[in-house]
Amino acid sequence: MKKRKNMQPNVTPGRPSGSRLFPALIGTGIFLSAATVVTSLFVYFNPGILDSNTSDNISTAADAAVSPATAILGPYGTMIPASGNRLPGLEALAIDTLLPDGAETSGSDTASPSGEGDGDSQEPHELGELSDLDMEAFVTEEGIVYSSILDTSIGPMIYYSQGDARWRDFLYGGADPMKKYGCGPTAVAMLISSFSLEGSSVTPQDMAQWAAANGQYASHSGSYHSLIPEALAAYGLRVESVQDRSPENVRTLLTSGHILVALMGRGSLTENGHFVLITRVLDNGYVSIADPNRYENCKKDWDLGALLSELKHNYDSGGPLWAVSVP
Description:
- By secondary structure, the chain is of the alpha+beta class.
- About 25% of the residues lie in helices and about 15% in strands.
- The chain contains nine helices and 15 strands.
- The model is unreliable at about 1-20, about 45-120 and about 265-270 (pLDDT under 50).
């Protein structure tokens, strides 16, 4: 009887056999996982301001950012689904600085005013100058879409610019362009969209419409001071007038779950007044701010005493400093 030759199983050319298929799948999975991690890191460490020429590549994401309830644009243009009103998906980001590649050295400007620890001073930032907080000196180029997340004492906060291409030319009150007069609605929109249980889809344009409809728009002057307590309270946030405006008390507020809305005064800063947010105390003793008019100011360290010295002297509705917290 002839011995039967071992028959080779049918194998499609170029396709792994059954014995090799499982290891091939494992190898492919590892490769794809590694590629995903590398791509994520690359996106994470790229700047969060998107030029209009490149934003076409993420047009879907840019459209979604107008309605953060569906999705929001995260740090550096990455996509983060919004699974709740307070952006819980952002909590895991643990952002220590606005932009890792935005740290700039400026000689002695990086010295700590308090002499406490190194902290953020290990990556020295540029020290902000009060003359940069000028509402009238609008410097944002046309066609810019902003997509950044700021770290604050409350948690991650969406950054909005009044000069964003999506609403820069929208007429606040039907008369005044947001790019010049929209600092109030923009500052309020940052807080509401990030921390309110009722306003995760709110944009600066939405808040401008709300302000005009609720008597908070001041023709050719921006917003009435009452916009801050009225709008934030209407969306469920806690707002308190800060009567003790000493640096010591303000630091205490910033380190105990508050963001401060500051009305900067007429003088070296602005002709009409300008709303900015003081967001947190840095380890080097300075503070961070969110400036609705100039994104670059968010990447600088600011001397708290100097900021407080430039608060507006004529104010009402609990100004010129409000402490905002989540109930």
